[in-house]
Records
---
Amino acid sequence: MIPFLYAIAAGLVMACAAVVEKLGLQQTQPYAALFIRSGAVVCALGISAVPFGRYADWSGFSAKAVLFLALGGLLAGLIAHFLYWQSLKATSPDYAVPIMLGTTQAVVVLLSVGLLRARVSSGQLLGVMLVILGIALIQLMKPR
């Protein structure tokens, strides 16, 4: 139950972020906005290190883990966020966010099967098909 609640909480925060970011992107270009966002994250991490630094266990890191985490940060925090903000700048969050998240969900399942050898249930496969159908419907029904 706890992982589910974390996922719901993350979704709520991401939804709020999408609306706030749309407001910020009205007068800012996406690439320039990434510098502001990244700077804010670095500052927040630096400040949070004082009260929460004792919770960070640095002993489990390997070079491979650092490489994968850095790659994930570049993919999600830089490239994907830039592309997402390009979409968000051109349209509304109610269009851009469901397509981005739906695509993410479908591809995560497929990559998990291919790279992580995850077992996927028939319910998950049905979910992926419904997500793809949902993306198609969002595109087809988009107000002109």
---
Amino acid sequence: MTEQFKFSTTLKPRAMDRLMGADFVDHPRYAEYLWDTLSEYWYRLGLRLSPDLLSMLVRVEGSYKTPFGIHEEAKIYTRISRIGRSSAVQEYQINEAISGRPIATFTETRVWVDAKTRRPAPWPEEWKQKVIAFEGKENVKVA
């Protein structure tokens, strides 16, 4: 299932990520993990944000498979699977790093927003081309 992903990063939870002393990661922490992974993906592809353009999260869906133990490491896979005029769909697969046990899957939709007008803005063409070159044109639906 992870063969469709060309990028991954490994993450170890912090003690503060647990729920009231439990031995598993509290669900709100996953949002931080996704943002960290997305930031690493952008950095790897050489995508640098402009102060004129904002990335706004407009939708996130997740499915939890098994608890993520506080003493485990996660391997988080991500890819951009769709690019619209001003939006993109990012997919994530979170597995336990050693065994590969599925932990959760997420899908996010982000929209580029002009910082001054607060209106949707087109994807930067340079970014679009870098994503397509990295992911492969057969793996990214472009609207």
